[in-house]
Amino acid sequence: MGRRIKEAGIQLSVTVLLGIAGREHSLRHARLTGELLSAMDPDFVGALTVMLIPGTPLEREYRSGAFTLPDEQGLLRELREMISHTNLTRGYFFSNHASNYLPIKAKLPSGKQKALDLIEAALRGEVRLKPEWMRAL
Q1: Which of 40, 43, 50, 115 is 20 to 30 A removed from 90 (C-alpha atoms)?
Q2: Mean pLDDT value of segment 91-97
Q3: Pairing state of beta strands 105-108 and 13-18?
Q4: Which has the closest alpha carbon to 83: 111, 57, 59?
Q5: d(CA 24, CA 80)
Q6: Which residue, 19, 131, 130, 4, is CA-closest to 82?
Q7: Strand residue runs (E) in the chain
Q8: pTM tops 0.85
Q9: Angle formed by the axes of helices 72-84 and 26-40, nearest 10°
Q10: Measured between alpha carbons, how far is 80 from 47 in angstroms, rounded to an integer?
């Protein structure tokens, strides 16, 4: 359907959610999401990170141990995996939402490697991540 939207001359914007597959399925979720994004070829991709809201079913699953959210490093690895599997002909990939630890604005395909390099630097501790208190919504 994404392709059909673009064929109709309408700009396509897609939102993806980091962390929603939990720690166990994080990288698989990232790969499959990247493949889906590549198939849709949207003009804009916005990545948000799961925020656990008190009283919601997901937050209750988290508290009970049924759901494990990836930590900061895990979310960065998920973001890296997603971008590395996303091949757009011409579009932007953003992770500049308040919920994200690392803001990225990449024009794909030309800026893909620069975005991956920034994530790698953050994984090595060379780039500061957004502090938790700044992620509060």
Answers
A1: 50
A2: 96
A3: unpaired
A4: 111
A5: 16
A6: 19
A7: 13-18, 44-49, 91-94, 105-108
A8: yes
A9: 30
A10: 12
